[in-house]
Amino acid sequence: MSMFQMGPAELREFSHLLQTACDQATASIPDTPTITADDTQLTFVSDVWTSAMTRDVLKVTMQKNWVHAKVSAISPIEPTATSAALVLEGLIGPTLRVQIDRWILAHDQGLMSNGIPSNLPSDRMLIDRTLAAMLGNDIERLRSAAMSLLRDRDFEIGDEMPSVPVGANNGMAVFSRQIGRGLPVVGSWITLCKDPPILFDGSYVVLDGPIPETSIFAAPSHRLKDLIDTGILSLDNRIIVAVHSLGEHAHGFTLWDEILCYYIELEPDSVPLGPCRL
Questions:
Q1: CB-side exposure of 114: number of CA atoms within 13 Å?
Q2: What b/e sequence results for 25-41 when a residue is b if at least 16 CB atoms lie within 10 Å of its CB, and e otherwise?
Q3: How far is CA 205 from CA 63, 177, 259, in A?
Q4: Is the pTM above the cut of 0.90?
Q5: Which residue, among 98, 97, 103, has the nearest Cα to 25 in the 3D structure?
Q6: Residue 129 pLDDT > 50, yes or no?
Q7: Distance (Å, rounded) from C-alpha 123 to C-alpha 130?
Q8: Who's near 259: CB < 8 A, 6+ residues apart?
Q9: Which one of 75, 171, 206, 226 has the fewest beta carbons within 10 angstroms of its own beta carbon?
Q10: 248: how many CB neighbours lie within 10 A of its CB?
Q11: Is the CA virtual torsion 110, 112, 113, 118 positive or negative?
Q12: For the segment 94-128, what is each residue's pLDDT rounded down to a tens digit?
């Protein structure tokens, strides 16, 4: 049974312990997350790299009762630096480790100037900015980030979807936008549905799930809603150019060979989608 109560003053005091733990966990990267407290909750805010290697902001709130329960289970007498570190690990530990991996990748890709991230467009990163880091052994850094997410499925941040294939094919990185032996293109994916996972980046729809073979053959020149219904009228009326597959029965290699994803290529749309936000 807890021996202390966590009122507004105690919550603010614990936020300082949590901030110290956060500073120590992120000491190796330029991003400096901030933790603030009011009478009822703690708020974590940090600049982050998305899975498309664009910049965005991550914000997580922690209600006072949740924080009190977590701290009491670890340190029933009073909050300590140890309990703060354990609470931070349980909340965003895997995410912070992914961010450290991505800072290494961003440095190798030349995405920074004097240690400051470049001002990249939110919807796309050009292939000539990424090719150097995607060749050879650098694929291992991409694998490690993807596998971290796979192990920690409760920590899905923004457009990070563990089920999207990431792997290597003839020395080239395979991202969700790569078809066959073409150059990989990193998209900033918008999640349309989580069960089954359906993602969209402006040109392609990715469906992680079964589609009848007869429907795939008949899909080109038909509207998207004839194949799947996304619930977005402007998207459902887009014309399908082709349907590509990637998985255990398709050309290429993925980390999760049991997964068969379909990449539905759509005709160009002149209406901009706008930035993909976390």
A1: 0
A2: bbeebebebebebeeeb
A3: 36, 10, 16
A4: no
A5: 97
A6: no
A7: 15
A8: 163, 165, 208, 247, 248
A9: 171
A10: 12
A11: positive
A12: 788 888 888 887 776 666 666 667 654 433 333 32
Q: What confidence score (pLDDT) does residue 273 get?
A: 32
The separation between the first and the last C-alpha atoms of the chain, rounded to the nearest angstrom, is 38
Tell me the C-alpha distance between 57 and 48, whole Å.
6
Integer CA distances (angstroms), 57 to 16, 131, 174, 219, in order: 21, 25, 26, 38
Taking Cα atoms as reference points, which of 153, 144, 34 lies closest to residue 99? 144
Beta-bridge partners for 49: 55
Cβ–Cβ under 8 Å, residues 82 and 74: yes
**Cβ atoms 177, 186 nearer than 8 A:** yes
Q: Cβ distance 159 to 50 under 8 Å?
A: yes
Which SS3 state, helix, strand or coil, does residue 20 take? helix
Tokens of 159: 């457009």
Block residue for tokens 């991202």: 175
Report residue 231 as tokens.
């619930």
Residues in the chain: 278
Convert the pLDDT of each residue in 215-240 to its tens digit.
Answer: 777 888 999 888 888 878 878 888 88
Q: For 202, which DSSP code? A: S
DSSP 138: G
Whether residue 148 contacts residue 101, with contact meaning beta carbons closer than 8 Å, is answered with: yes
> Tokens representing 68?
């009190």
Which tokens hold the place of 3?
Answer: 């021996």
Three-state DSSP state, 226? helix
pLDDT (tens digit per residue) in 3-61: 456 778 888 888 898 899 999 988 988 888 899 888 888 888 988 887 666 778 888 88
Asked if residue 162 lies in contact with residue 197, where contact means CB atoms within 8 angstroms, the answer is no
